[in-house]
Amino acid sequence: MSSRDDILADRLNAEPAIFKGCSSSELGIIVGVAALIWLPVSLLLAGLLGAVTMGFGIAGMGVVGTVIVMASLFQRLKRGRPDGHYQQRFSIWLSDLGLRWSPFIRRSGAWDIGRRGNATLPLRDR
Length: 126
Fold this sequence. Notes:
By secondary structure, the chain is an all-alpha fold. Helix content is 51%, strand content 0%.
């Protein structure tokens, strides 16, 4: 059978949930985007108040708050849906805006093979 030394993580089909249903890659993206937004804004506000170093503390609290709020939002978006559902919805949304090409077939209606007329079959020699 199997030994006790097997690493169970090698047999996972998807990334495991780390925090509020988000995987580590999703949390990394949330933290990165939150830091890109909060750091300049908080440094600017703290600079206007005369205490630039206070901006790093404000940015840290903003990033933590953003991670908690966005992880809760993703948890609600992902509830009861298959893996990768919201990535597909996001791709379709970008396609609707014309910002990105989506690989999904979204046409409804009758399909046609594109031929016109009847095809003739060659006769076999007997």
